Amino acid sequence: MERTQLLELANKYGSPLYVYDTDKIETQYKRLTGAFNSVDNLKLNYAVKALSNVNILKFLTNLGAGLDTVSIQEVQLSLTTGIDPKNIIYTPNGVSLQEIEEVAKLGVQINIDNLSILESFGQKHPEIPVCVRINPHIMAGGNSKISVGHIDSKFGISIHQVPHIQRVVENTGMNINGIHMHTGSDILDIDTFLRASEILFDVAKQFKNIDFIDFGSGFKVPYKEGDISTDIEQLGLQLSERFNDFCTEYGKEITLMFEPGKFLVSEAGSFLAKVNVVKQTTSTVFAHVDSGFNHLVRPMMYDSYHHITNISNPSGKDRYYSVVGYICETDTFASNRRISEISEEDVLCFHNAGAYCFSMASNYNSRYIPAEVMIVDGKDYLIRKRQTMQDILQNQVVVDFAPKSKTKKEKVTA
User: Fold this and answer.
1) Where is the Orn/DAP/Arg decarboxylase 2 N-terminal domain positioned along the sequence (predicted)?
2) Are residues 67 and 185 in the same domain?
3) 242 assigned to some structural domain
């Protein structure tokens, strides 16, 4: 998306505003499928939690993607796209047996990540095939909060507990039709990923009816010029060869699955915010924007970097600013960042804002959640209206209650 187009959208729809470029989403989808084109059966299940607007889901399913979900609500949202339930995989963590049973009724692929629920589900529904999530005890990811495959992680069934899984299968007669892992986000070292994959192959060999192996995702995208990212093409070459060899050894052509989220939508997203105030202190120049961590929490929660450009003055002299929000707490997007000279009313663009940005937005400070716009073939479409006070109040129940009566003060006798 060009700077002039983004400025036009900010003027047309107001700010703050999320904008998504579907050309970039399609490019990333084709890049990933191309890297694994030597695999006969490849399935990409888009991770809905990254960006869950139903229009984005429809766009991806039209490209051929399935959907990866983590809650019954994400399953229900996914079904509104018209997708075949068989193309949805449901991978919750720590939810009740009741929720998993409700999802199973919808006909989607169930993925279970703990022994207790696996046994309970198998006893009640042995006829329903399930996938199991394995914890490979591999540390991967760019931040401790998104590293989920290590030994102390709450996610998955330990590789050392595979005999327990087998015992549950023997006792219940249930069918394990898939093996899954997800080591974490922002994976740089493909050797680490390949090492975890070998663990998954070893586990899969121990089950006779596997239809697919889901290798998760977590591929890193570049957040600034010169940034390191996952070498998808090299990973595709090495993992495809190993996967095809495994299929030969297993005696069956199975499906290779991934669940990319950030890789598909991160670079497609731009977040536009207007500068309210430029404030000079004794040591810092602050650019206060009409947003805060209620709209973009990643810099505060994950210490993540988002490149920021002044699209109102791209050729201005570079100066150093701390870009901050309007929340009544410290909400710093960038500290001492070099940006072309900023004036009040300028529009700043936060890049790589497609994944885990809008989806983590809130009404903190009773601020409205921003609007969303999608660009398809160069044309802009409003895909989420900006909130109003009516939206904030609609589920609140106003109770008509009598105020407490005041207690009369007793006279004090001297």
Assistant:
1) 23-266
2) yes
3) yes
Query: Is residue 29 marked as binding?
Result: no
Distance CA 203, CA 197 (A): 10
Annotated ligand binding at 302? The verdict is yes
For the chain, what percentages of helix, strand and coil (3-state, to nearest 5) are there? 35, 25, 45
Do 172 and 315 fall within a single domain?
Answer: no
Among 262, 267, 289, 273, smallest CA distance to 359 is for 262
Q: Which of 131, 328, 349, 357 is catalytic?
A: 328
Burial of residue 11, with CB atoms counted within 10 A of its CB: 0-12 exposed, 13-18 middle, 19 or more buried: exposed
> What's the pLDDT tens digit per position in 132-166?
999 888 754 444 434 444 456 678 899 899 999 99
Question: How far from chain centre, in Å, is Cα 121?
Answer: 27
| 269 is annotated as contributing to ligand binding | no
| CATH label of the domain that carries residue 147 | 3.20.20.10
Cα(first)–Cα(last) distance of the chain, in Å?
82
C-beta separation of 341 from 318 below 8 A: yes
Cα 371 to Cα 9: distance, rounded to the nearest angstrom: 11
On whether 34 is known to bind a ligand per the annotation, the reply is no
One-letter amino acid of 32: L
Residue 13 lies in a domain: no
pTM of the model: 0.92
Find, among 101, 183, 103, the residue nearest to 142 by Cα. 183
**247 catalytic per annotation:** no
Three-state SS string over 213-261 comes to EECCCCECCCCCCCCCCCCHHHHHHHHHHHHHHHHHHHCCCCEEEECCC
Find out whether 298 is annotated in a ligand binding site: yes
Question: Which of 297-306 are b and which e, b meaning 16 or more Cβ less than 10 Å from the residue's Cβ?
Answer: bbbbebebbb
Please, are residues 322 and 287 in contact by the beta-carbon 8 Å criterion?
yes
Least confident of 2-16, 367-381, 394-408: 394-408
